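Friendly challenge for the regulars: who can give me the structure tokens for this chain first? No prize, just bragging rights.
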Amino acid sequence: MKSIEPVFVTELFCQIHAELLSLLSNLSGDDWVKPTAARQWVVKDIAAHLLDGDIRRLSYQRDKAPMVAPETPGSPSSSAPSSTAPSSTAPSSTAPSSTAPSSTDGYRELVDFLNQLNADWIRAAKRISPGLLIEFLEVTGAQVCELFRTLDPFAPALFGVAWAGEQESQNWFDIAREYTEKWHHQQQIRDAVGAPPLTGRKWLFPVLDTFLRGLPHTYRDTQAEEGSSVVFIITGEAGGEWTLKRESGAWKLYAGKSDTAVCLVRMEQDAAWRLLTKGLSQEEAAERVEISGDDRLGKPILGMLAVMA
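First reply, four minutes later:
Bragging rights claimed.
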């Protein structure tokens, strides 16, 4: 076991953008209207959503444009939506917000607001042709890459990673979160059209390593004796081992495997990324996740999401 380290993916973010452009440029007309894991979104909708994320990032962070405020009473006033994550049931947001929600009601209001923003964009983007979407993405994606290259990775990010419970995050975590967004949406397109997946270690391990930073927040209400540890093993080329340990009344995440764990959770990499992006129901996840030892300490993973939903 060792302390977890930052995930630096700025250059990988730029490379996966190039993979997206190549993928979209080779789609047929029929491919653009194929259904995806997000039942309400076809391939073209996901591509449009990725463009929306780029536009919001550039507008809010690079150009310092005023952040869009909710119009409905009681909605969070300081949210800065950037992106959403379609699921097997309905689009659910991975959008960063300027603060982590302080209550369940506040979190729900934020997610509802972000989902409405995304629905509005997708509806308007139906007027955009696939060819023009690609041209727009060529421009915005390159500019987001350049923006990220200028940021100090350890400076405070514009957006906190709310699904990890952080009100303030460092830039490296915000960028890593955006990488997971780009990766899993592109994977949903690849699934839909039968394109080769980007599931080699280079691409997928940083996604999983970033996602699991949300474990302490997921387990925040799970009680255990001081010193208890839960080991999470993801198998496959992009897999790894992580340990969640109870220390000073809270949970702390480590890289590596504890030899004294009271619970061991094992899943293969395909199940892991789908579970954490709302691509599996809890019932489906239970069939693909093996829990050994203290079952009570393994079950919270079945409800974990590395998206705002």
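The radius of gyration is 19 Å. The first helix runs from residue 10 to 25. Your move, everyone else.
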